[in-house]
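Weekly puzzle thread! Below is a chain. First person to post its structure in token form gets bragging rights.
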Amino acid sequence: MRIAIMGSGGVGGYVGGWLQNAGQDVVFIARGAHLAAMRRDGLRIEHPQQPLHLPTVMATDDPRSVGPVDLVIFAVKLFDTEAALDTMAPLVGRSTRVLTLQNGIDSVEMIRSRLAPTAVVLGGVIYVSAVIDRPGVIRSPGGLHAIVADRAGGDAVMAELAQTAATMDALSVELSDDATRVIWEKFVALASLSGATSLLRSRMGAILGHPETHAFQRQLVDEAIAVGLAHGVALRAGLADEIMGRLAAMPASFRSSMAEDLERGNRLELRWLSGKVHALGLQHAVPTPAHTAVFRGLVLHEGGSRQ
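Winning reply:
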């Protein structure tokens, strides 16, 4: 299967690296110093249990040089979506599947609105902590490494993706018949942990280890669930406890990619995470004081100090 990774940062680099290692034909769409390093030295994934070095990878900044593929894994930051879609059309043919692993709940519609009406865009989520540590190097502290994606009625491309992942220890793929619920469950967890680790400038072990910040983390989760229910999403009973349990099982050193971006002066996905909870709370008259505090407390930083 020919796979293009649109956005070869932490998530895209991690997924694409392990798919290539499993024998798939992968091309990485990247840019700048990261692209140059990949062309020169390949791709390296630094991981405490499962490090990987691919000495040779196919990488380009021009999708026109690639042509149509079987699967596009769309993993750019949300604020880069429109710019990426402006260049992605050459990758998408009549039989191409576009699987978005972006954060938030808006990605599928954002992508569909910019591609041809015949394009097949499928929703999915990924649970992994991975960032570009330096050009050509993806760093992950370990922990979760799972994709959950739309089964799409037994689509053959998605089935092959899941079968490939079944041969790997560092990446799993589960297919679901209820992608909307799956995306919302990830959104609840991600918006909440991103909000806490970013606003508090702390890692998960410290946040859960203090009663006040533990309570703040739980409040963020509860608010996002309340907004989802008001929005008509059939979120499962007990989801809040499940999410808190997942957070407790993460490495104590874990923090969100948004917290990493905040420290590095990069742009933030704030308005699609806590900002989205804040906006939906206003729309549905659901109080969201914790997410509103995150949004207002970080809004001056969302453009990044490097911009």
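Puzzle host: Confirmed. Bonus trivia for everyone else. The longest strand covers residues 120-128.
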